[in-house]
Write a structure and sequence with these properties.
single chain, Alpha-Beta Plaits, 2 domains, five-stranded antiparallel beta sheet
């Protein structure tokens, strides 16, 4: 490969890493071609992209962003970029890891910072963006529902009290 082509690839990977909401360096060894194709499709459905990149190019692209890897990357590596939701595409990889009983994550990148494997696992335990939005909306709706119930409760009590008074007066007049 020509030097200019490598430089262009490093620029491309660095650009994708800087534009992605999060990314993960993934070892895909242990997966067959069908599993990899399915994983790529699942990641794409969740708003991400997975591509295979040479380790040396990944290292250079990360250094271009000011990120230094603590060790040299070994083995086949791909990068999973999360472009829409920070977590959802990476959770797809985690599902495959659990179902195939492998650990394929090497490192994560979030907010132009390197995440260790432990930090990446903690990151994956966060709820997805849609789950957080649902929880937020639920949190807003619950107090409003309680307030509406409280208002209805007082009105109901007033109506029942007036009805009881009317029935008592009716009995007294009979």
């Amino acid at each position: 490969m020509t030097t200019q082509k490598k430089i262009d690839q490093v620029e491309d990977v660095a650009k994708k890493l800087s534009e992605a909401k999060s990314a993960a360096l993934v070892q895909y060894q242990g997966l067959n071609a069908a599993d990899i194709a399915q994983l790529r499709a699942d990641i794409k459905d969740k708003g991400g992209v997975m591509e295979v990149v040479k380790n040396s190019l990944i290292t250079r692209a990360l250094e271009k962003l000011g990120i230094k890897l603590p060790e040299t990357l070994v083995g086949p590596t791909s990068i999973a970029y999360s472009n829409e939701d920070e977590i959802a595409p990476l959770k797809e990889i985690d599902k495959v890891n659990k179902s195939k009983n492998i650990t394929s994550f090497k490192y994560g990148v979030y907010d132009k910072k390197l995440l260790s494997l432990d930090e990446l696992k903690a990151f994956l335990n966060l709820p997805s963006k849609t789950a957080l939005i649902s929880q937020f909306i639920g949190g807003l709706v619950n107090p409003l529902q309680r307030m509406a119930y409280a208002f209805r409760f007082n009105q109901t009590q007033l109506v029942l009290t007036l009805k009881a008074i009317a029935e008592k007066q009716e009995k007294q007049t009979n």
